[in-house]
Amino acid sequence: MKKQYNLKTYNFNLPKKLIAQQPLQPADTCRLLVLDKKTPQITDDNFLNLTDYLQKGDVLVFNNSKVIPARLIGQKQTGGKVEILLLKQINTNTWECLVGNLPIKKQVDAQLNFTKTLQSKIIKRDKDTAQIKFNLSGQKLMREIFTIGQMPTPPYIKRLAQQNEYQTFFANDKKLGSVAAPTAGLHFTSRMFKKLQQKSVQIEFITLHVGLGTFAPIKETNITKHQIHEEYFELDKATAQRLNQAKKENRRIIAVGTTSVRVLETCSSENNSPKLKPQSKLTKIYIYPGYEFKFVDSIITNFHLPQSSLILLVSAFAGTEFIKKAYQHAIKEKYRFYSFGDVMLIK
């Protein structure tokens, strides 16, 4: 097995004190680590200076998916506490969920009560998940979820995040579906968008509903044997046409976040050419070292967990050794890591 395919290659030790527990206020005051993979050179800067590294005509592609406060605390019929995590919507009143604190053999037909208004029943049980049918549906169900739900922050964040902290400011109310935030977008503010517009940078939006698999560690020693999680995405015709035109004009396509990368590379890889095909479906594209990028020219991204599919993606883009060097530098310089941490520009 080649070294770059060995999972241990993508491990690193991170001091716990560098794991950011809350976002900076304002969010755009974080630090920026710039990686020039052609040189290769590493530059320390501030995120507010991002436009210094951009030029007129560059295209930034954002994920406008909105995070659901997917963690619901309720009661079993016995009165004991139960916690569920919404994963994927099956229909207007049924969700695939993780269910804690309830024996598997008792889960089917179990009643779970959350408020006087919201009750549910488990109608199907799989190995790791359950399908839960609620007594409310559609917008009524969503309103109740947003009233009582908690944001599904990852386990390394030891505090309860407020809904506005774990949501991009440009999240589209019509694009509900993520159970984890597209975190690279959290750094952007209306102030930064204004700076981008002043620089004549083009802003585009795609949608990918982020699933919990994003944070899942890879368990295969040989990374090529890992099965990537599926995530639903949408790329509409008009956006694809504008992006294709920009690519044709040799303007840089800069993906904000690994979720945007996955959409753009999914939609271009089917054609095996740097031309996007608009579509709405599930993607399970798995990007690891050896992958040849077809559409993305640059990436804005957070610092990622060791041995995760996300660190494999950025290693594929910038080179494994360069990413290892950059992470060592970031640790030495005390950058803030993970969802609420600082940000990288890889160009």
What does this structure look like?
This protein has helices at residues 138-148, 190-198, 237-248, 258-269, 309-318, 320-332, and strands at 31-36, 41-46, 59-63, 66-67, 71-76, 81-91, 94-100, 111-113, 119-125, 130-134, 176-178, 202-208, 231-235, 253-256, 279-283, 298-302, 343-346. Strands 2-1-17-16-14-3-12-13-15 form a nine-stranded mixed beta sheet, with helices on one face. With 347 residues, the protein is of the alpha/beta class. The chain folds into two domains: 3-67 and 164-346, QueA-like (3-Layer(aba) Sandwich); 71-148, QueA-like (Thrombin, subunit H). The longest helix is centred in the last third of the chain and has 13 residues, at 320-332. A hairpin with a 2-residue loop joins strand 6 (81-91) and strand 7 (94-100). It is globular, with a radius of gyration of 21 Å. The two termini are 29 Å apart. The protein contains six helices and 17 strands. Helix 5 (309-318) crosses helix 6.
Gist?
With 347 residues, this protein is of the alpha/beta class. Helix content is 19%, strand content 26%. It folds into 2 domains: 3-67 and 164-346, QueA-like (3-Layer(aba) Sandwich), CATH 3.40.1780; 71-148, Thrombin, subunit H (Beta Barrel), CATH 2.40.10.
